[in-house]
Q: What sequence folds into this?
């Protein structure tokens, strides 16, 4: 392991995040600047530390191997969050370190679980930073899932064919920078368009910016206590539904669409599955919403669609307290928390392509049972998959479920009730945000026991970084020699 | 599809069940109760219908092929409980057909979920029949597992070498009869020795017999309302625990042990994993219940955890304490262990330990593969290499199992059941355990469930018992084509 190469990259990441943080300063000053001092200090600290670390290690070779790749990805999120929580602590907005770190991890991993009981009292600078963490995190994820993880060979990520300028499978080469640039463009474009549309619907520019940041990154932090329900506007909800859905779609498909290949969407197995699943789940959830007198049918349909899309894309915005719905609807929501949306998007969860491959394999096995001598390969986007990839996907699925089960057991042991524990872990591991029970749609994570918060942070990170990236760091094999 | 052959074999099986039902007559006579007539009539009907079927479908039985095999196995588990429910209906012990069929399916699939509110009020003949359905079902499963499923070639059964007299891969040959005979021998031996131990502990002979049937088949029907908890005897609990664990162990290991190869127990990775998991869960449940549920009394906490965890992990379903009111953490542990089940080749249900074990193992080899891109990483089970082909099969099985659980739970939730009861009753019926948590816990039963829910659970029990694929394959169009 070349630690110094790792350090130099980490230093570089810190500088970038620090510079982004300093962009919050004008916002803060414009709104009175009670938090300007905390933000300035944190940004400076971040940039200085980053520069120092980078400077003292920059002479190392740029060749990064698999191990270095894993370490950078894993530590990058931990370290960035460590500095990212400084503004909350220094300004006194979130005095407790665990809470501040929780909020920041939840931000950078685009989870959207909050420990704030009253969001609206936060100064505007911090609110902006909170949303910006998700936007930065989302950007990181896109880069990671399209450019870096396939190269590292994580649990079936090979399935994802970016087809943006070539990706070398062996090492992290400069070409990744090209891929990254293109994807950032798509990302920025989506954000800006949504901002314009939201402002047109009567949202203030500040709110529109923050909500666009957290929609496109499928984060889910809002500037309002009641989340999107605050606006009581069908138009705003519709805009957000569309953009959540787009953010849950592979960004490579968007890129191709921008180049005129609109049919790329319908030709992609995963996208087709995603679209069907959204319609199907919305329908079941719609049937699970108790009809109140005076409520129009259209409104109920919209509530069902909004919540389905919000959960499956792992965003976590809410327009209704879904815990008042029938248990069947909540059961489907919980399942969607596991599913997640498409690979190569900003969404979390298991990812639909994996589920699709496992389903296809199951059906195949059934056929092979009837025709024992037939050899039926699993096909994805027209290509037949090797068994090795199916096994990779399977182990990913197993690990995801195992981490869910173990973490939920830990949470109940800490004294939380079963529904809240399962909901909190599923919502953290899938990077959704609001869970079920006492951490549901209208609640927050402030009351979770201290150790529980750290467990959930671990879940958010593991879930965000495609599980193996983090788990690998805890294996003896990784550190050998 | 050779429908005639299927009918013929089913007829023979029905006759066998009818004859077994006759053995309830002497029991009923001994206790001199009102159920002699109904039992006699039921078994007559069963035998007559069975003979009719057998005659109507008489054909060359030596060459049962794959498709017919699937059809026979699946229909057997649907049709036999139909006849099995006759004694309940005719004796008016369980007047509703849905309920009687549920009780009968639960019996034959060795689940042990009951809809009887007051078990002790049932006449002895009926009680005996209820436990006997477990025993017959368990016997059927052992044969299915070790003799028939390996030929069909699916998943876990494929993994262990039965090592009883050789098995042909293509057809159900007479050799299967040899295998079956040996396994029944082991099965009967276990039953008789448990009965002896229980009687030595002061249990009346009738209760001992019924409980031995229920234990060795990992069924869980008791003759008492409060199950094994009725006896309040640490000795009896220990005996039952031991036999539950033995019944959840691969029967071919017992056979090897009988031939003097005791070391096979220790060399079997699945069994080691099963027992390891058992110890871990008992410790965890003991620790999480000791304060909240047993007032600091660690001895009781251990005693009740050891029994009830063994009962759930072996998919039996006896209870000595109402674990539905234990601390939430303990309940969650119990819920989680409702899924893996016991070892393959035993009478236990669930996913089967070997599958869970292989999947967990595959995670570690995936990590190694991730770090050493060019290394060839082999996964081994009992010293033999497990190739990707098997893993992929196991994955398909687990996905179907979980998928079935998710959908069945959804339907149960739609019937208005609360989440805890809905989820646990599905999990428990799929794995063949019996009591769940919430309103279907050990202190309550399934009688209050809506009719639709009972039928869904019937399906779960049968499908779970048949290792899913055997049943699901019948629903696929490809099966019926050509």
A:
């Amino acid at each position: 392991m070349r630690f110094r190469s790792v350090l130099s990259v980490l230093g570089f990441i810190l500088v970038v995040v620090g510079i982004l943080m300093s962009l919050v300063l004008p916002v803060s000053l414009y709104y009175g600047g009670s938090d300007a001092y905390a933000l300035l200090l944190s940004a400076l600290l971040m940039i200085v530390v980053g520069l120092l670390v980078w400077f003292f290690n920059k002479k190392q070779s740029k060749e990064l191997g698999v191990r270095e790749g894993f370490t950078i990805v894993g530590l990058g999120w931990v370290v960035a969050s460590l500095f990212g929580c400084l503004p909350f602590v220094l300004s006194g907005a979130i005095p407790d370190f665990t809470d501040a770190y929780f909020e920041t991890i939840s931000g950078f991993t685009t989870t959207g679980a909050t420990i704030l009981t009253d969001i609206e009292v936060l100064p505007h600078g911090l609110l902006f930073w909170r949303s910006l963490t998700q936007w930065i995190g989302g950007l990181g994820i896109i880069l990671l899932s399209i450019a870096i993880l396939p190269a590292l060979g994580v649990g079936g990520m090979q399935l994802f064919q970016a087809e943006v300028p070539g990706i070398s499978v062996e090492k992290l080469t400069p070409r990744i920078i090209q891929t990254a640039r293109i994807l950032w463009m798509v990302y920025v474009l989506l954000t800006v368009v949504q901002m314009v549309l939201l402002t047109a619907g009567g949202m203030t520019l500040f709110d529109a910016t923050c909500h666009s940041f957290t929609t496109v990154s499928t984060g889910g932090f809002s500037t309002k206590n009641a989340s999107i329900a605050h606006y009581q506007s069908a138009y705003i909800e519709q805009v957000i539904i569309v953009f959540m859905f787009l953010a849950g779609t592979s960004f490579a498909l968007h890129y191709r669409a921008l180049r005129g290949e609109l049919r790329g969407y319908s030709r992609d197995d995963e996208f087709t599955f995603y679209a069907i699943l959204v319609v199907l789940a919305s329908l079941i959830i719609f049937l699970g919403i108790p009809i109140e007198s005076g409520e129009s049918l259209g409104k109920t349909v919209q509530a069902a669609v909004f919540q389905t899309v919000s959960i499956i894309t792992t965003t976590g915005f809410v327009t209704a307290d879904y815990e008042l719905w029938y248990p069947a609807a909540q059961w489907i929501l919980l399942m969607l928390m596991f599913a997640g949306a498409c690979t190569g998007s900003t969404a979390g969860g298991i990812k639909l392509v994996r589920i699709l491959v496992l389903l296809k394999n199951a059906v195949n096995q059934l056929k092979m049972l009837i025709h024992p001598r037939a050899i039926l390969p699993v096909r994805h986007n027209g290509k037949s998959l090797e068994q090795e990839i199916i096994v990779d996907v399977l182990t990913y699925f197993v690990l995801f479920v195992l981490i869910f089960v173990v973490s939920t057991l830990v949470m109940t042991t800490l004294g939380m009730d079963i529904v809240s524990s399962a909901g909190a872990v599923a919502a953290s591991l899938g990077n959704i945000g609001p869970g079920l029970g006492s951490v549901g749609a209208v609640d927050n994570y402030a009351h979770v026991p201290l150790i529980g918060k750290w467990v959930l942070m671990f879940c958010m990170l593991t879930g965000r970084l495609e599980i193996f990236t983090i788990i690998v760091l805890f294996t003896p094999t990784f550190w050998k020699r | 599809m050779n429908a005639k052959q299927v009918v013929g074999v089913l007829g023979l099986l029905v006759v066998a069940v009818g004859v077994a039902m006759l053995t309830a007559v002497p029991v009923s006579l001994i206790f001199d109760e009102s159920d002699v007539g109904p039992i006699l009539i039921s078994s007559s009907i069963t035998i007559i219908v069975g003979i009719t079927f057998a005659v109507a479908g008489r054909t060359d039985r030596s060459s049962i092929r794959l498709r017919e095999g699937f059809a026979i196995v699946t229909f057997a588990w649907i049709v036999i409980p139909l006849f099995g429910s006759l004694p309940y209906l005719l004796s008016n012990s369980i007047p509703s057909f849905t309920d009687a069929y549920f009780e009968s399916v639960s019996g034959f699939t060795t689940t042990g979920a009951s809809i009887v509110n007051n078990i002790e009020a049932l006449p002895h003949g009926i009680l005996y029949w209820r436990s006997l359905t477990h025993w017959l079902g368990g016997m059927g499963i052992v044969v299915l597992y070790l003799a028939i499923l390996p030929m069909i070639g699916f998943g876990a059964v494929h993994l262990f070498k039965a090592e009883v007299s050789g098995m042909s891969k293509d057809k159900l040959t007479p050799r299967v009869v040899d295998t079956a005979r040996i396994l029944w021998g082991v099965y009967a031996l276990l039953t008789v020795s448990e009965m002896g131990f229980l009687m030595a502990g002061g249990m009346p002979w009738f209760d001992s017999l019924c409980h031995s049937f229920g234990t060795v088949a990992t069924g869980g029907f008791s003759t008492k309302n409060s199950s094994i908890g009725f006896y309040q005897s640490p000795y009896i609990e220990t005996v039952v625990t031991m036999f539950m664990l033995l019944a959840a162990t691969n029967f071919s290991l017992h056979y090897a042990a009988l031939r003097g190869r005791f070391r096979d127990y220790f060399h079997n990775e699945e069994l080691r994993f099963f027992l390891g998991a058992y110890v871990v869960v008992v410790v965890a449940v003991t620790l999480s219940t000791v304060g909240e549920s047993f007032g600091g009394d660690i001895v009781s906490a251990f005693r009740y955890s050891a029994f009830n965890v063994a009962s759930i992990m072996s998919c039996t379903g006896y209870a000595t304490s109402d674990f539905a009111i234990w601390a939430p953490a303990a309940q969650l542990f119990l819920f989680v262990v409702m899924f893996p089940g016991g070892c393959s080749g035993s009478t236990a249900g669930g996913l089967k330990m070997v599958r869970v074990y292989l999947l967990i193992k595959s995670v570690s080899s995936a990590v190694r593969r991730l770090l050493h891109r060019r290394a060839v990483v082999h996964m081994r089970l009992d010293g033999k290499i497990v190739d990707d082909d098997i893993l992929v099969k196991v994955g398909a099985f687990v996905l179907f199992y979980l998928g079935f659980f998710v959908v069945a739970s959804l339907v149960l939730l739609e019937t208005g059941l609360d989440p805890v009861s809905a989820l646990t009753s599905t999990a428990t019926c799929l794995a063949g355990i019996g009591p769940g948590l919430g309103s279907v816990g050990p202190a309550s039963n399934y009688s209050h469930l809506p009719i639709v829910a009972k039928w869904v659970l019937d399906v779960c029990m049968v499908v779970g018992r048949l290792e899913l694929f055997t049943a699901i394959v019948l629903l696929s169009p490809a099966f019926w084509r050509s």
